[in-house]
């Protein structure tokens, strides 16, 4: 079999047709509802105790800290109340010994110290004023009048959240291991160390990064309808959306303001359909899962996110290389390489290493449309460790990478579409009189990614042109905030998501046009600040 035919055959295994999309949406909605009704389901549907999203008029100075891996970030965010903000930030690496400290106090006192350094460096005025007032405040009223910074704490480890600023650590991940912290409230531990340093700071909110994305987008979003969903397509994938309180029927431990009738729910959709009822499962997906540290878990994430797409591609290519009759990365095509030299793969090549291939090669493959695929061939040398690949080799990589990326985006569309349908936001439509087609183009342009990738915007607007019909009124826009390298950098990720949305019953072309998807920048900082603000209002 020729290399071209074989690469087309492998690519076809990743095809995810409209009918599959529709079936997955039905299952996704089922699993969402199951998660709202009871605990220990596939999708956790965690209530966040955040009961409203911002509308861009919020004001004030807030602090945010982020402990999620190798670094600790401290920032202050000035919300200007007009959908804009200013952000000051510092970042420090967590010393290795503190990641495995004997006691949690060692780590948390280090974190509090960083907050103190940040305040002294960037907010000296506020800090000094606080110290003076504290010294003169002798009555309880005097103390209450002291100006405290409200702080949002983004903590990206598994926690059991029992209130907007309450949550106990379930277990450490990502190289942290401090036994006595497990089961303890991380906000209490941070507050205790902050108080020991007598800092004017209150830990007001415990923040999940997906919820931060939703809040940040809702604040900065051009429309004032409030963002429905915040979604991350980066190393992992997850989403948080605004759900009706009445639909969350499982027990909730914490106190919250019921007046809005809504609550933000963290779906933990990475584990959608772990039983593989509807998800596609190629032999390459099966190999990835079997050899992973958590087989059978995060099955949706394993088909969508940046951590896994490079590995799926690597496995598919290795399976092809194993077949002697398939001339991939073999010398047969070497006359079509620039060097006319032998195509070779070293034994130590990244191609043969588990997790050896970064997902960014998918974006490079997708973007290279030159005749000789020179950029992609260079990337194959660099990141797969194959020397002097031929044009045919690069065409095969491109074909398969495209199929993997397109499937990921269509699956991402399933999550977005299911949430739009679950929340019933498409229910009402304001009818607008028809506009001349030139105005439609500019409308469509303004409806897409506001701040990122102007080139993509134009492409999207052009792609959307054949869709006729009345333009969308601002009142009918369903706003969605996204973050993560995959959605930001993979060419056409949004186009393919939209293709899937159009295929869904209950959405179709008319519904898809009402969905505005925009990048949420600095989600963890601004989002955490906004949740601290919401929490302070609840007091
Ligand atoms: P995180 O999710 O950890 O906050 P990112 O959103 O930057 O960070 O996502 C990092 C992931 O995205 C990595 O798995 C990386 O392989 C992948 N990635 C980075 N750049 C690209 C790209 N240009 N195209 C596709 N995937 C990418």
TrEMBL record:
Pfam families for the chain? Hexokinase_1, Hexokinase_2
Q: Name one GO molecular function term.
A: D-glucose binding
**GO cellular component terms, A-Z:** cytosol; mitochondrion
Which residue numbers delimit the Hexokinase C-terminal domain? Answer: 229-534
Pathway it acts in?
A: Carbohydrate degradation; glycolysis; D-glyceraldehyde 3-phosphate and glycerone phosphate from D-glucose: step 1/4
Keywords, comma-separated and alphabetical: ATP-binding, Glycolysis, Kinase, Nucleotide-binding, Transferase
GO biological process terms, semicolon-separated: glucose metabolic process; glycolytic process; intracellular glucose homeostasis
Class of enzymatic activity (EC top level): transferase
Q: What residues does the Hexokinase N-terminal domain cover?
A: 8-219
The name of this protein is Phosphotransferase
> Lineage of the source organism?
Eukaryota, Fungi, Dikarya, Ascomycota, Pezizomycotina
């Amino acid at each position: 079999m020729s290399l071209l035919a074989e690469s087309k055959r492998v690519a076809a295994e990743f095809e995810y047709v409209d009918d599959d999309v529709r079936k997955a949406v039905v299952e996704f909605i089922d699993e969402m509802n199951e998660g709202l009704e009871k605990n220990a389901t596939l999708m956790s549907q965690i209530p966040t105790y955040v009961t409203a999203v911002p509308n861009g008029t919020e004001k004030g100075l807030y602090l945010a800290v982020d402990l999620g891996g190798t670094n600790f970030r401290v920032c202050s965010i000035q919300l200007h109340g007009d959908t804009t903000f200013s952000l000051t930030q510092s970042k420090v690496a967590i010393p290795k010994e503190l990641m495995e400290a004997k006691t949690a106090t060692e780590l948390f006192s280090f974190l509090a110290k960083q907050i103190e350094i940040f305040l002294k460096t960037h907010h000296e005025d506020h800090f000094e004023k606080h110290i003076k007032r504290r010294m003169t405040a002798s009555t309880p009223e005097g103390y209450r009048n002291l100006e405290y910074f409200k702080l949002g704490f983004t903590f990206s480890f598994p926690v059991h959240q029992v209130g907007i600023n309450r949550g106990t650590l379930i277990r450490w991940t990502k190289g942290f291991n401090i036994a006595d912290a497990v089961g303890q409230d991380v906000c209490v531990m941070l507050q205790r160390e902050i108080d020991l340093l007598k800092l004017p700071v209150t830990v007001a909110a415990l923040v999940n990064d997906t919820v931060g994305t939703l809040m940040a987008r809702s604040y900065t979003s051009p429309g004032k309808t409030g963002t429905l969903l915040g979604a991350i397509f980066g190393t992992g994938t997850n989403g948080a959306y605004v759900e009706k309180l009445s639909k969350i029927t499982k027990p909730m431990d914490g106190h919250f303001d019921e007046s809005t009738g809504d609550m933000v729910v963290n779906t933990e959709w990475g584990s959608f359909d772990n039983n593989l009822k509807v998800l596609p499962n190629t032999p390459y997906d099966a190999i990835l899962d079997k050899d992973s540290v958590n087989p059978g878990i995060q099955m949706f994430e394993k088909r969508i996110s940046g951590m896994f797409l490079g590995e799926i591609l690597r496995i598919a290519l290795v399976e092809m290389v194993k077949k002697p009759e398939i001339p991939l990365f073999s010398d047969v095509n070497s006359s079509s390489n620039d060097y006319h030299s032998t195509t070779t793969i070293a034994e130590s090549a990244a191609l043969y290493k588990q997790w050896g291939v970064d997902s960014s090669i998918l974006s490079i493959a997708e973007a290279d449309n030159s005749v000789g695929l020179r950029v992609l061939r260079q990337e194959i040398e660099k990141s797969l460790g194959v020397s002097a690949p031929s044009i045919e080799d690069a065409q095969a990589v491109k074909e398969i990478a495209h199929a993997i990326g397109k499937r990921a985006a269509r699956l991402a569309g399933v999550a977005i579409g299911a949430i739009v349908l679950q929340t019933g936001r498409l229910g009402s439509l304001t009818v607008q009189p028809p506009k001349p087609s030139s105005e439609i183009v500019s409308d469509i342009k303004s409806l897409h990614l506001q701040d990122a990738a102007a080139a993509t915007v134009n492409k999207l607007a052009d792609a959307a042109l054949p869709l006729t019909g009345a333009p969308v009124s601002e009142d009918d826009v369903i706003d969605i905030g996204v973050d993560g390298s995959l959605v930001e950098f993979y060419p056409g990720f949004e186009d393919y998501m939209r293709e899937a949305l159009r295929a869904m019953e209950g959405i179709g072309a008319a519904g898809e046009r009402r969905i505005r998807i925009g990048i949420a920048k600095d989600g963890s900082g601004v989002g955490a600040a906004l949740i601290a603000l919401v929490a302070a209002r609840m007091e």
